[in-house]
Amino acid sequence: MVDLDLSNKIGSPFKHNLLSEKGAEYLVPLLETNRFLSFLNLSGNRIGDKGIQLILAAISKGNTMVSLDISQNSITGDSADAISFCLTECKPLKRLNLWGNQLGNACIEKISNAFAEKSCHVEDLNLRCTGISSLGFRFIFKTMVMGAKYLAKLNLEDNEIGPLEKPFTVAMNGIAGSPSLKWLSLRNCGLNDYFGECLAKGLLANQHLTHLNLSKNDLTDSTAFIFAEVLSNKISVLRELNLSKNMIGDSGAIAMAGMLSVNEKLKNINFSANFLSEKSGRALQSTMQTNKTIETITLSDTDI
Questions:
Q1: How many Å apart are CA 24 and CA 188, to the nearest integer?
Q2: Measured in Å, how far apart are the chain's first and last C-alpha atoms?
Q3: How far, in Å, CA of 99 to CA of 102, rounded?
Q4: Does residue 14 surpass a pLDDT of 60?
Q5: pLDDT band for position 120 (50/70/90)?
Q6: Residue pair 43/9 in contact by the 8 Å Cβ criterion
C-alpha cells in the first residue's frame, strides 16, 4: 500500500466516517511498520491533538511518508512539539497540509524553527486559516522563509495579520533572503501597504519567487508603485502576480502598465475587482501591443 485516503471529503469512500482519537490508535501499528505507505490523507476528520500526536510519532518512526494531509482535524497549538518533531525526523516528507487547524502563533514559531533545521526537507506547506497573526507572520518570514533550504510552496491564505502601523521589514528581508521559495499565497490576510511595499522591495534580491498571490487585501496605489519600480528591474523572475480585490486605482495600474513595457518575465497579472477606469484600460492595452511575454491581464469586475 502506497496511498491511503481516509479523508472525510466528497469522493472518498470514508466520507461519512469521521475518524477520532480512537481511530488514530488503530492506525499507529500500520504507520510504524508499513515500509511502502507514502501518501496519507486524513483531512476533515475529528482526530484532535491526542490522536494526531500518536499519528505523527508513528510517522516519524516509520520514516516513509512523503505527503501528509491532516487539514481540518481540530488540531491546536498543543501539537506543536509533535509537528515539529515529525518535520525534522521524517526525512522523506515533502508535503504537509495543516489547513483549517487553529494552531496559533506559538505553534507557528516552533514549526518555523523546525524548517530552519537541515533535516527538514518539506517543499510544500499549507498553513491556510491556521490562526496566525502579525507575530506568527514574523516567525514565518524571519525563520522559515529565510532558513528553509527546500521550501518551494507556502500557502498563508485566510490568516489575519491585522492593521500594520509601520513597515513590515521582516517580509522584505525574508523574501530577499529566501533560498528556495517559488510560490507564495497571501490571499485575504488583511495586508496593507506597510506589508505590500516591503514585500515588493524584497523581490529586488530574490531569484526564485515566480508566483505571488496578494488578492483580497487592502493594498493601494502605493504598493502598486513599488511593484512597478521593482518589476522594471530585469533581476526579477516573477511570472505570475495576482493583485485582484484590492484598492488599486488608475494611478497604480498605469504605473504597472509602464513596468510591463520593459518587463520580460511576467506572463500573467490579475487586476480584477480594483478601482480601474478606461484610463487604465488604454494604458494596459498599449502595453499588450509591445510586450511579447505577457499572456493574460485579467480586468474583470472593473469599469474598463
A1: 33
A2: 54
A3: 9
A4: no
A5: very high
A6: yes
Q: 182-228: per-residue pLDDT in tens?
A: 999 999 999 999 999 999 999 999 999 999 999 999 999 999 999 99
DSSP string, the chain: --EEE---STT-TTTT----HHHHHHHHHHHHH-SS--EEE-TTS--HHHHHHHHHHHHHHH---SEEE--SS---GGGHHHHHHHHHH-TT--EEE-TT---HHHHHHHHHHHHTSTT----EEE-TTS---HHHHHHIIIIIHHH-SS--EEE-TT------SS--HHHHHHHHH-SS--EEE-TTS---HHHHHHHHHHGGG-SS--EEE--SS---HHHHHHHHHHHTSTT----EEE--SS---HHHHHHHHHHHTT-SS--EEE-TTS---HHHHHHHHHHHHH-SS--EEE-TTS--
165-180, pLDDT tens digit by residue? 999 999 999 999 999 9
Report residue 34 as a C-alpha cell.
508499513
How is residue 289 written as a grid cell?
501591443
Residues listed for the chain: 304
Average the pLDDT over 69-87 and give the result: 98
Cβ–Cβ under 8 Å, residues 91 and 121: yes
Which domains, and CATH codes, for the chain? 3-298 (3.80.10.10)
Three cell numbers at 102? 487553529
pTM value?
0.96
Q: Which amino acid is at 88?
A: T
Among 110, 105, 157, 106, which Cα is nearest to 131's? 105
What pLDDT shows up at residue 288?
87
| The pLDDT of residue 18 is above 90 | no
